[in-house]
């Protein structure tokens, strides 16, 4: 089973994919760039291809924008890409709970993946995203 998901950005860190969702303009690409500055690799910006591989949902670059990430007000940057199993979905929302008890889940190709909502307007968003991967992401 395979699907192309639009309006999401995805990066790989330590062999695990973080799929970033949220409305247009909320900062998905900016978070991906900040995570890339912390060692992550781009999988896809503004879209990702998901494939079921055994029990895993694996994220790969979408063919139409492979290797391109938008830097708002600057242009498109060409970077190497990766592929990795999706370990967590990070939903950027201004309604994120300050101190949630646990995490929610997202259904990807019939498989439940942890979902953590993050408030987007903070200079520490990449640190929070990385902590969410370590605390709630699938191994």
TrEMBL record:
Annotated keywords: Kinase, Transferase
A single GO BP: regulation of carbohydrate metabolic process
Organism superkingdom: Bacteria
Record flagged with keyword Protease: no
Gene3D superfamilies: P-loop containing nucleotide triphosphate hydrolases
Molecular-function GO term, any one: phosphorelay sensor kinase activity
Domain HPr kinase/phosphorylase C-terminal: 9-81
Official protein name in the record: Serine kinase
Organism: Aurantiacibacter rhizosphaerae
């Amino acid at each position: 089973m395979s699907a192309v998901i639009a309006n999401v950005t995805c990066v790989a860190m330590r062999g695990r994919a973080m799929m970033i969702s949220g409305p247009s303009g909320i900062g998905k690409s900016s978070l991906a760039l900040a995570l890339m500055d912390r060692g992550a690799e781009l999988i896809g910006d503004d879209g990702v291809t998901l494939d079921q591989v055994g029990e895993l949902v694996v994220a790969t670059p979408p063919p139409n924008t492979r290797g391109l990430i938008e830097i708002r007000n600057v242009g498109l940057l060409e970077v190497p890409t990766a592929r990795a199993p999706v370990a967590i979905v990070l939903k950027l929302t201004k309604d994120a709970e300050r101190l949630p008890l646990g995490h929610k889940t997202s259904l990807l190709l019939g498989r439940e993946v942890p979902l953590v909502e993050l408030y987007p307007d903070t200079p520490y968003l990449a640190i929070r995203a990385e902590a969410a991967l370590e605390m709630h992401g699938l191994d």
